[in-house]
Write a structure and sequence with these properties.
The structure holds two protein chains of two kinds.
Chain A: E1 4-6, H1 7-17, E2 22-25, H2 32-38, E3 44-47, H3 51-65, E4 69-73, H4 77-81, H5 83-91, E5 96-102, H6 118-122, E6 128-131, H7 138-150, E7 156-162, H8 163-167, E8 169-171, H9 193-205, E9 209-213, H10 215-219, H11 223-233, E10 237-239, E11 254-256, H12 264-272, E12 275-279, H13 285-288, E13 299-304, E14 318-321, H14 324-345, H15 353-365, H16 381-391, E15 396-399, H17 403-411, E16 420-421, H18 432-442, E17 448-453, H19 454-460, H20 463-469, E18 475-480, H21 485-494, H22 511-517, E19 521-525, H23 528-540, E20 546-551
Parallel strand pairs in A: 2-3, 2-4, 4-5, 5-7, 6-7, 9-10, 9-12, 10-11, 12-13, 13-14, 15-16, 15-17, 17-18, 18-20, 19-20
Antiparallel strand pairs in A: 1-8
Chain B: E1 7-16, H1 21-31, E2 36-43, E3 49-58, H2 60-71, E4 76-82, E5 87-98, H3 104-114, E6 117-121, E7 125-132, H4 134-144, E8 149-154, E9 158-161
Antiparallel strand pairs in B: 1-3, 1-4, 2-3, 5-7, 5-8, 5-9, 6-7
Classes of the chains: A alpha/beta, B alpha+beta.
Bound molecules: thiamine diphosphate and magnesium ion.
Chain lengths: ~625, ~170
C-alpha cells in the first residue's frame, strides 16, 4: 500500500530522491508547510539573509560540484528577490531549481497577501516553470524539473507551490522516467556525422584556425576532450570569460580571454583567423565587438547543444547541434581518420608555422601589462591578483562584476576547469559573496577566494553572516577603489571625465569593523609590502570567513579595451605599452548607457569609427 | 523573395494543452523583439494538444530564429512553416458597414459577389460575415470602405498543409 504524505513531505522526499544534499533558502508564510518536514530530512538547509543570496549560492554550488543548485523561498517578495539569480542562471546556463511558496489555490489571482504572479514573472527567464495545482503531481514535477535543469542546455527551473497544495495529502509515488511526459523535449546530443566530417575537412584546409571555447565546454564537462582535440590538431584556443580554465592558462596552446578586455593575442588571432571552431560559445557582443567586423575572413564551425545559438549572431558555415563532449570526441576521431588518410596519400600536414609564429609574436609583444605604482603606497589591483594567485594557485576564484572581475580573469593563472566562477551574461553585481559561499558549501576542502569590488560587496555583504553562522569559511578580497570603478572608467573615457554618481568613498563603511561585526576576520592593506603579508595571514585562517580590504589605486583602468559597439581591430592597449593615446577621441564612440546595442545580428549597430591616435598594430608588421 | 526582406510567414505550432502555454508563446515572441501579425488558438482532435497559428512579418533568418526559439519551449511539440503555395489558409471576418435605406442594396450586392453572409441587419448598418483566404477578406474590406466601416473583428488566420494529390505507392 502506498504511503499518504502531505505535498510538503512529498516535495522533501522527492528532493532526497533526486540526490539533493544542500538547499539554500529563507522561510515565510506560504512556504511554511515545506519547512516543517525539512527538519527531519537529511538535506542540509543553509539559511540565507536575503533570497538573492540563496540563488547565487545555488549557482556557486553548481560550479563547485557539478550538481544542480537548489533554493527554497516564500511567495511574493521571497520569490521576487530571487528573480535576479534566476535570470543570471538563465543567461549563463546554470542548472538550478527554485521552489517558491505561493498563496493557496483559491486565493490565486485575488491580490492576496504576498501574492505575486511569479509563474508569469519567471516564464521568460527560466528554461521551464511550473505551478503545482495537485499534490499528486509533486514527484513528477520535481523529477522533470531536475531532468530539464541538468540536460540539454542547462538552466533554471522554477516551481510555484501553493500553500494548500503543500498542506494537503497525496499517495506517494515516484516516476520511473522523468522524461515520460516531455513529448516536446528531446535534446540532440551527438553531432551529425556529415557535419563532423565537413568540420574536419575545413580544418584540413585552414591556414589560420582558432578554437573559440565557451562556457558550453564546462557545462558539457568536456575540458579533457577540448584539450585532446587542441593538442592533436595543434590549434590554439581562446577561453572566454565563461570558459576560463577550460584549458589551463599555462598550456602552450591557451591564448586566454578574448573580447572587450581580452589580451591582444586572443582578440587578434580571432580577428585574423580563417576558421573559427566555436565550441560551446555564443558570439556574445562582449566577445565579438561590432559583429560585422568580427573575424571577417573566418569560416565558422559552430558546435552547440542549443540549435537556436547556431547562426543567431554569426552565420555558421558548419552548424553542429550536440553536446560538446560527444561532438568533440567525434571531431577527434574524424581528425584521426583524416590524418591516416593523409599519411597514406603521403601528403604533408597543413603548414601553419607562419600562423603559430605570428601568434607567438603577438603573445610575446603584448601580454597583459600594467604601469607599476610610483611608490609603496600605490597598490595596483593587478598586483593583488598576481599575489593571491601565487599564494593560492589552486583556489576556486569567484568574481564580482566590474573592473575587479576583469582584473581577476586577466591576471589569475587558471589551472583547472571550474576554478573560475562569475556572472558573465547578466553581469550581476553582488554575485561574488553568495556564489563563493555556495561554492565552498559544495566543496569544503577547497580554498575559495572571492575577488569583489567595493560596490559589489555592499550589495550582498550580509551573506557573510550566513557564512559565519553556517561555518563556511570563504575568503573575500575587496579591491577597494572607492568607486563604481567600471562605470567611472567609461565616464572617464567616453563622457569627458564627467563623473556622475560613481564615487563611493573608501572609508565608509569601515570594512574591517564590518567584517568583525559579521563574525569574520577583517584586514586592511594600504601598502605594497602588506599585500603578501596579509594574504599569508588570511591563508592561515580556515575556521572563519576572512575579508581583506585592499586599498587599491582608484584611477586604474582595465586594458586592453574594445569600446562597446566598435570593431575588435580597434583594441586599445592602454598606457602600459608606452604609446600615447588621446582617449578624448573616444568620446564619439560612447553609447548611451554603457550597454552594447541589442541586435538580432548586428545590422543596426552604428558604423565603425576608428579613433585617431591609436595605432593599428597588426598592420605594422613584425 | 530575398531572405533579407521581411515577409508574412505563417507558423502552425502544435503545443501541449498546458496552463500558460499561450503566454509562453506570445511572451517569447515579444521578448525576442518580434511582432505577431495574428495569432489564433484552438483545440485539436486530441484534447491534450492545441494548435496555434501565428503570422509574423520577418526576414527568413529571423523566422528561423523564431522557430528555433519556439522549439525551446518545453510545451511546443511541432512547428510547421506553412508555405503559401502549398497550404490552405483561412480567416473569418465580421464587418459592420454603415448604410442607409438607399445604400443598403449596394452593400448587399458586394456581399453577394464575395459570397459573404449577412450576419445582422440594422436600420443604419449591415454586418457581413466572410471566411476565406486573408487576401479576399482584405478585398471585401477595401470595397465596403466607401460606405463607412463601423467595426471589424477578424480571427487571425489558421492553416493546414495541403494533402498530397496522389496516394503514396
Ligand atoms: C546589479 C547591478 N547594478 C549595476 C551594474 C552596472 N555596473 C557594472 S560594473 C559597476 C561598478 C562596480 O563597482 P565595484 O563593485 O566597486 O567594482 P569596480 O568596477 O570598482 O572594480 C556597475 C555599477 C551592474 N553590473 N549590476
Ligand atoms: Mg570599486
Amino acid at each position: 500500500m502506498s504511503q499518504r504524505l502531505t505535498g510538503a513531505e512529498a516535495l522533501v522526499r522527492s528532493l532526497e530522491q533526486v540526490g539533493v544534499e544542500v538547499v539554500f533558502g529563507l522561510p515565510g508564510g506560504a512556504i511554511l508547510p515545506v519547512y516543517d518536514p525539512l527538519i527531519d530530512s537529511s538535506i542540509r538547509h543553509i539559511l540565507v539573509r536575503h533570497e538573492q543570496g540563496a540563488g547565487h549560492m545555488a549557482q556557486g554550488y553548481y560550479w563547485s560540484t557539478g550538481k544542480p543548485g537548489v533554493a527554497v523561498v516564500t511567495s511574493g517578495p521571497g520569490a521576487t528577490n530571487i528573480l535576479t539569480p534566476i535570470t543570471d542562471a538563465f543567461m549563463d546556463s546554470v542548472p538550478m531549481v527554485v521552489i517558491a511558496g505561493q498563496v493557496s489555490r483559491a486565493a490565486i489571482g485575488s491580490d492576496a497577501f504576498q501574492e505575486a504572479p511569479t509563474f508569469n514573472m519567471t516564464m521568460p527567464v527560466t528554461k521551464h516553470n511550473y505551478v503545482v495545482m495537485d499534490p499528486a503531481e509533486i514527484p513528477q514535477v520535481v523529477a522533470e524539473a531536475f531532468h530539464l535543469a541538468t540536460t540539454g542546455r542547462p538552466g533554471p527551473v522554477f516551481i510555484d507551490l501553493p500553500k494548500d497544495v503543500a498542506a494537503s495529502e497525496m499517495d506517494w509515488w515516484w516516476p520511473e522516467d522523468p522524461a515520460a511526459n516531455l513529448a516536446g523535449y528531446r535534446p540532440t546530443t551527438s553531432g551529425h556525422p556529415k557535419q563532423v566530417k565537413e568540420a574536419i575537412r575545413l580544418l584540413a584546409e585552414s591556414a589560420r584556425p582558432v578554437i573559440y571555447a565557451g562556457g558550453g565546454i564546462l557545462k558539457a564537462r568536456a575540458a579533457a576532450e577540448l584539450r585532446e582535440f587542441a593538442e592533436k590538431t595543434r590549434v590554439p584556443v581562446v577561453t572566454t570569460l565563461m570558459a576560463r580554465g577550460a584549458l589551463p592558462d599555462d598550456h602552450e596552446l591557451c591564448l586566454g580571454m578574448p573580447g572587450m578586455h581580452g589580451n591582444y593575442a586572443a582578440v587578434t588571432s580571432l580577428q585574423r583567423s580563417d576558421l573559427l571552431l566555436a565550441l560551446g560559445s555564443r558570439f556574445d557582443d562582449r566577445v565579438t565587438g561590432r559583429v560585422a567586423d568580427f573575424a571577417p575572413d573566418a569560416k565558422v564551425v559552430h558546435v552547440d547543444i542549443d540549435p537556436a545559438e547556431l547562426s543567431k549572431v554569426r552565420h555558421a558555415d558548419v552548424p553542429i547541434v550536440g553536446d560538446c563532449r560527444i561532438v568533440i570526441d567525434s571531431l577527434v576521431k574524424e581528425f584521426d581518420k583524416s590524418e591516416r588518410r593523409r599519411e597514406e596519400r603521403g601528403d604533408p600536414p597543413p603548414d601553419r608555422d607562419a600562423w603559430l609564429v605570428q601568434i607567438e609574436v603577438w603573445r610575446d609583444k603584448f601580454p597583459y601589462r600594467y604601469v607599476e605604482g610610483s611608490d609603496d603606497k600605490v597598490v595596483k589591483p593587478q598586483y593583488v591578483i598576481e599575489r593571491l594567485c601565487a599564494a593560492a594557485p589552486d583556489a576556486t576564484v569567484v568574481g564580482g562584476v566590474g573592473q575587479h572581475q576583469m582584473f581577476a580573469s586577466q591576471w589569475w593563472r587558471f589551472s583547472r576547469p571550474y576554478q573560475w566562477i562569475n556572472s558573465g551574461g547578466l553581469g550581476t553585481m553582488g554575485f561574488a559573496i553568495p556564489a563563493a559561499v555556495g561554492a565552498k558549501a559544495g566543496d569544503p576542502d577547497r580554498v575559495v577566494w572571492a575577488i569583489d569590488g567595493d560596490g559589489c560587496f555592499q550589495m550582498t555583504l550580509q551573506e557573510l553572516i550566513t557564512a559565519s553562522v553556517e561555518r563556511i569559511p570563504v575568503k573575500i578580497a575587496i579591491l577597494n577603489n572607492g568607486y563604481l570603478g567600471m562605470v567611472r572608467q567609461w565616464q572617464e573615457l567616453f563622457y569627458e571625465e564627467r563623473y556622475s554618481e560613481v564615487h563611493l568613498g573608501t572609508d565608509i563603511p569601515d570594512y574591517v569593523k564590518l567584517a568583525e561585526a559579521m563574525g569574520c576576520v577583517g584586514f586592511r592593506v594600504d601598502t605594497v609590502p602588506d599585500v603578501d603579508a596579509v594574504i599569508a595571514k588570511a591563508m592561515e585562517i580556515d575556521d572563519q570567513p576572512v575579508v581583506i580590504d585592499f586599498r587599491i589605486d582608484p584611477m586604474e583602468k582595465v586594458y586592453p579595451m574594445v569600446p562597446a559597439g566598435t570593431s575588435n581591430d580597434g583594441l586599445l592597449l592602454g598606457p602600459a605599452y608606452g604609446q600615447v593615446e588621446d582617449e578624448r577621441e573616444l568620446t564619439a564612440l560612447a553609447d548611451s548607457d554603457g550597454a552594447a546595442p541589442m541586435t538580432h545580428g548586428g545590422e543596426d549597430e552604428p558604423p565603425p569609427e576608428h579613433p585617431e591616435g591609436h595605432i593599428e598594430l597588426d598592420k605594422g608588421g613584425f | 523573395m530575398s531572405a533579407m526582406e521581411p515577409h508574412l510567414t505563417t507558423l502552425s505550432v502544435l503545443v501541449e494543452n498546458q496552463p500558460g502555454v499561450l503566454a509562453r508563446v506570445a511572451g517569447l515572441i515579444a521578448r525576442r523583439g518580434y511582432n505577431i501579425e495574428s495569432l489564433a488558438v484552438g483545440p485539436t482532435d486530441d484534447p491534450g494538444f492545441s494548435r496555434m497559428t501565428l503570422v509574423v512579418d520577418q526576414t527568413q533568418t529571423h523566422v528561423e530564429q523564431i522557430v528555433k526559439q519556439l522549439y525551446k519551449l518545453i510545451n511546443v511539440i511541432k512547428i510547421i512553416e506553412l508555405d503559401p503555395t502549398d497550404s490552405i489558409e483561412r480567416e473569418l471576418l465580421l464587418v459592420r458597414v454603415a448604410c442607409t435605406a438607399e445604400t443598403r442594396f449596394q452593400v448587399l450586392e458586394l456581399a453577394e459577389i464575395f459570397e459573404a453572409k449577412v450576419a445582422d441587419v440594422g436600420a443604419e448598418s449591415v454586418a457581413l460575415e466572410l471566411s476565406g483566404p486573408p487576401s479576399r477578406l482584405n478585398d471585401l474590406l477595401e470595397l465596403v470602405e466607401q460606405h463607412g466601416i463601423k467595426e471589424v473583428a477578424r480571427t487571425g488566420r489558421i492553416g493546414l498543409e495541403r494533402a498530397r494529390k496522389r496516394a503514396a505507392i
